[in-house]
């Protein structure tokens, strides 16, 4: 599907695609695309889908928001307007082990249709206690047995509180903006995304204009330096580096040291 500079769904393209679909439709939108941090325009997408629902059976179209990277930013009054219309989705998912900094395995599903979710997740057998009247995890999760992952999530939320979460999320976004501001003015450096969240997508070209070899060489040098560990990606057919500011400990000094390491490798190798 056509997407814009920040990998956001182009609503007109979605309308065309959905018009051609004759079976059930699940639209996976994003709150924080992995390369760009792009946040889909949920209001526009929901408008397209509301129109497409006419004449189709109930439940034939489902709008999901993959908020693995970005959903915690909803807590921030400053960032929240970027998510306008997200409440119109049928389901959201997010990871506490990304923006919230809990240990791994803390994925969270949130849905406007709990009965459908329960039907999909539950399983029953004679030897299992029937949990109709109470809320039993077995009815809501893909696994039967699991450790108490929610404890880590709950403890983190209790410890940080709303204000702590907001502070952490906003700081990570500010650090991403700092990366973009510090890198952008330099020759041969291209900031490829509009920084909406904690992601910066950057490409380095050598003096001859090549990025295909130069960007991976810069990436390797910075990874080897031990200063920071950005990762690589392909963006519109050419290599790029994705910087994800996710850790609660990342400071301005860390950003500046990483920028220096990137620019040093860029100059040395380019
Ligand atoms: C955008 C996005 N969606 C979904 C996932 C998968 O989440 P999990 O690792 O919790 O399975 C990831 C990465 O982990 C992601 O970056």
Secondary structure layout plus pairing:
Layout: H1 11-20, E1 25-30, H2 42-53, E2 61-66, E3 91-95, E4 107-111, H3 114-121, H4 149-183, E5 189-191, E6 199-204, H5 214-225, E7 231-235, E8 238-244, H6 252-269
Parallel strand pairs: 1-2, 2-3
Antiparallel strand pairs: 3-4, 5-6, 6-8, 7-8
The structure holds pyridoxal-5'-phosphate.
Residues 34, 66, 68-69, 95, 107 line the site of pyridoxal-5'-phosphate (PLP).
Helix tally equals: 6
The CATH superfamily of the largest domain bears the name Type I PLP-dependent aspartate aminotransferase-like (Major domain)
Tell me, briefly, the overall form: globular
The percentage helix is: 25-40%
Q: List the helices and strands in order.
A: HEHEEEHHEEHEEH
Account of the 3D structure:
- By secondary structure, the chain is an alpha/beta fold.
- The chain folds into two domains: 11-160, 3-Layer(aba) Sandwich (Aspartate Aminotransferase, domain 2), CATH 3.40.640; 172-269, Aspartate Aminotransferase, domain 1, CATH 3.90.1150.
- The chain is 35% helix and 16% strand.
- It contains six helices and eight strands.
- The protein has helices at residues 11-20, 42-53, 114-121, 149-183, 214-225, 252-269; strands at residues 25-30, 61-66, 91-95, 107-111, 189-191, 199-204, 231-235, 238-244.
- The strands form two sheets. A four-stranded mixed β-sheet has the order 1-2-3-4, covered by helices on one side. The protein has a four-stranded antiparallel β-sheet with strand order 5-6-8-7.
- Helix 4 packs across helix 6 and helix 5 (214-225) crosses helix 6 (252-269).
- The chain is globular.
- The mean pLDDT is 95.
- It binds pyridoxal-5'-phosphate.
- Pyridoxal-5'-phosphate is lined by residues 34, 66, 68-69, 95, 107.
């Amino acid at each position: 599907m056509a997407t814009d500079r920040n990998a956001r769904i182009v609503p007109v393209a979605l309308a065309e695609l959905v018009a051609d679909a004759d079976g059930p439709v699940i639209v996976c939108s994003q709150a924080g695309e992995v390369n760009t941090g792009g946040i889909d325009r949920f209001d526009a997408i929901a408008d397209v889908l509301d129109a497409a629902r006419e004449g189709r059976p109930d439940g034939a179209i489902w709008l999901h928001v993959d908020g693995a990277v970005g959903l915690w930013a909803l807590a921030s009054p400053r960032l929240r307007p970027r998510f306008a219309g997200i409440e119109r989705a049928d389901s959201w998912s997010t990871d506490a082990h990304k923006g919230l900094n809990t240990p791994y395995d803390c994925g969270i599903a949130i849905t406007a249709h709990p009965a459908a979710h329960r039907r999909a997740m539950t399983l029953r057998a004679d030897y299992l206690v029937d949990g109709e009247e109470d809320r039993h995890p077995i009815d809501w999760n893909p696994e039967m047995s699991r450790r108490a992952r929610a404890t880590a999530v709950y403890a983190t939320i209790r410890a940080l509180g709303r204000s702590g979460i907001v502070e952490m999320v906003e700081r990570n976004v500010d650090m991403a903006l700092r990366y973009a501001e510090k890198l952008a003015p330099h020759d041969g450096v291209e900031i490829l995304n509009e920084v909406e969240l904690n992601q910066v997508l950057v490409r380095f070209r050598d003096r001859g204009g090549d990025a295909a070899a130069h960007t991976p060489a810069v990436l390797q040098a910075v990874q080897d330096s031990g200063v920071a560990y950005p990762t690589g990606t392909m963006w519109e057919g050419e290599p790029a580096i994705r910087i994800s500011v996710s850790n609660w400990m990342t400071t301005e000094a860390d950003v500046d040291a990483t920028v220096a390491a990137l620019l040093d490798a860029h100059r040395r190798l380019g």
